[in-house]
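Listing S7. Sequence submitted for prediction.
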Amino acid sequence: MTVGSYATLAQLYALGVNAEALAHVAKADQQEALEAASRLVDTYLWKLNPPLAVFTGEITEAAAVIAAYTIMSSRGFDPEHNDSKNIRLRYLDKIRWLESLDGGAKLPGAVGQGSGSAGMLRPKVSAAPLRGWDRGWRGRRTS
């Protein structure tokens, strides 16, 4: 997997389309399709606050299916032909699934999502109780 891609070429073949169907497509073009599909997935997740730290298998599958559809479409396949309908239907299913995520708020099992506003990202800090500091300097109570 390269930077900016939610799926590898192996995942494209396992989840998107059979490797034999892409035998005449350059690996660089396949990788570019995966990166473009990942950017498309990101448009559905951009509202996440904080950003997604670890993505789920559903996101990997969505990127692979979208990339497969993109590659096959650029090769001129007929999405209405009975043998090819599956590729288009899977693509449409993944797009509907991404639309249903509500900016990632409904993404089950995702690490890094929060319910905060879309404002500036801030660290979450917690500390132990005051341990006597409420009594003032040198241990005397200030109030």
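Caption to Listing S7: primary sequence and predicted structure tokens for the chain studied. DSSP finds four helices and no strands in the chain. The radius of gyration is 23 Å.
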